[in-house]
Amino acid sequence: MKYSKILLCFGALWASSAFPAPAPCDTLRVAFLTDIHVTPGNAQDSLFRVAVDEINASPCDIVIFGGDLTNLGSDAELKYVHGLISRLEKPWHAVPGNHETTWSESACTTFARIFGHDGRTAFRAGDYLFLGYASGPFMKMAMGAVRTEDLAWLAAEAAKARPGQRIVSLCHYPLNNDLTNRTEVTATLRRLGIPLTLFGHYHRAPSLFNFDSIAGIQGRALRGKSDSDAGYTLLDFWGDSVRVREKTLGAEPRTRFTIRMQDDPRTLALASDPTPPVPDYKAHAQLVLQDSATIYTGAAFYKDLVYYGTTQGVLRAYDTRRNREVWRQRFGGALYTTPLVAEGLVIAGTTTDGLRAYDARTGRERWHIDTPTPIVGQGLVAALYIGLGNGTMVKIAVRDGRILWRYDYGRGQSQGQPTLADGKLVFGAWNGHLHCLDAATGKLGWKWTNGSKSLFLSPGNIVPRIAGGRVFIDAPDRAVTCLDLASGSVVWRCTDYKAREASGMSADGKRFYVKTMDGELLAIDTVPDAFRRLWITPAGFGYDYTACPVTVSGGIAYLADRSGNVAAVREDGTPLWCVKCCNSAANFITEAPDGSLWATFAEGKIFRIPPHAPAGHKKKIP
């Protein structure tokens, strides 16, 4: 829709009445845009251009973006939307949303390069200090979470506030139970004297929230139900007050509400979300360590050492017997790839420093491979098979790092771990396809797609499970699919269950396990030529979409969710226990050489579950 005539009609009206200042001497006029979701050529592309022209013609002082600037978070989209934003003639600042952090092909490094920060930005405007930070989720579907190190940054920046300067928080997610560490975040804001947060994510009219006595102002998305009601939010700050108005493109702003930033009765009258349950894991798990940074990798093992990576770019070797760090390597960006251990080496894929191999005991570098794009995918050791950045799968000699073959498939990260069986390597990528290669030569045997045009539904973060000459997957299209390993042809597909990215396989290959989005464990018979459910058991989670794979050990299937819960289900479908370890999404549950299970969680916690943990209902499972 074209708005040039509308702009001409309302230009004078905007200049004279759009911002009637309640206190002309010290009002800070802010245009707050969030969830603009620009893809080149889409409706939001045109609508955002109109919004930019309106704002340039207005008396506003500053423009703030609350995340979800793009749809896919691709390099091309980020570059394009940054170009559009740069047409603003006003100072502007932006934080990323989940569409920039969840599916980023560059592991968020392109956002940092183009926008000048990795999600953390502090800026002053008038008598106010704004502290913006990312709220995830990072590189996978999960609930939002503020990184542990970002909370420390908030404290450091808040300490720099000038006398009398009020501080405003800015992130994409609401600070309620959609954020896994919400209580820690709101407690931090209260301690720092930050009374107000701005956010987006909820595509609805500007609204007021109470986040544990922190006032929350939600900005509206650029596009409403149609192009004709597109718009953004206007904020007028003066003293301890803020007025919130909704600005539809080409129309006069409408006041939604006015509040005091701190202890306003309207805010306090609203109910906060219930406090999350208290962790209750001690009967079945042991907290081994709490890192000072966020963890998105799994754990790897060599004798008494455990290895993992953090979002601060640290690869850490930790002695579990002596409870101390043995060595560490630091890189320029976050680590999302679980370290691999083979032939006395620890191999780490990084987002900034390529692929690196170190002596497992000493941490001395043995070899490295530079890559033009970040590595975010999980690897597999037989030889070493790993996605070497965007659009490439390789086979590498573990001992010296020689690339034995390279398969270039175009675009999209291969994030989930590949699977090797019968001389074939099967892996998915964020390009809509599942690929099958000859493991010896890297030659393509076949590739399969579910036919969706949306890359969000790609099998990019799944682990293919192979048994009896068949491949079983549960991509984000919410279908369970069985393919013939030799040809890639579909044997059967089932869409009766909300399957999404989290699966496992029994040791004998007769049962394919899927964690559903309804918090159930589904067991499927792998032998018949048609879908056959063996059993389905509630795990005790409720609604869930975390991509933590199901790990099977000693006749027990272990699964975890987005809120720190871990459950154990016997392979006959009997639920054993479900405990709450913490308040963040699980990454991986990995079996150690002694048969124990190690679960890593985003908030930097690592738990050990003893081998064959005793049965019994720690938490009642419905």
Structural account:
This protein has 622 residues and is mostly beta strands. It is built from eight helices and 44 strands. The strands form ten sheets. Strands 3-2-1-10-11-12 form a six-stranded mixed β-sheet. A six-stranded mixed β-sheet has the order 4-5-6-7-9-8. A hairpin with a 3-residue loop joins strand 35 and strand 36. The longest helix is centred in the N-terminal third of the chain and has 14 residues, at 4-17.
Provide a quick synopsis of the model.
The chain contains 8 helices and 44 strands. The protein has a 6-stranded mixed sheet. A 6-stranded mixed sheet has the order 4-5-6-7-9-8. The protein has a 4-stranded antiparallel sheet with strand order 13-44-43-42, with no helix packed on it.
Strand coverage percent = 35-45%
Strand order, sheet with most strands: 3-2-1-10-11-12
What form results from the Cα inertia axes? globular
Rg is 25 Å
Mean pLDDT: 93
> Which runs of at least 5 residues are low in confidence (pLDDT < 50)?
1-21, 615-622
Number of helices: 8
- How many strands appear in the DSSP assignment? 44
What is the percent of helical residues?
Answer: 10-25%
What distance lies between the first and last C-alpha atoms, to the nearest angstrom? Answer: 51 Å
Please state the structural category.
mainly beta
Give a short account of the largest sheet: 6 strands, mixed
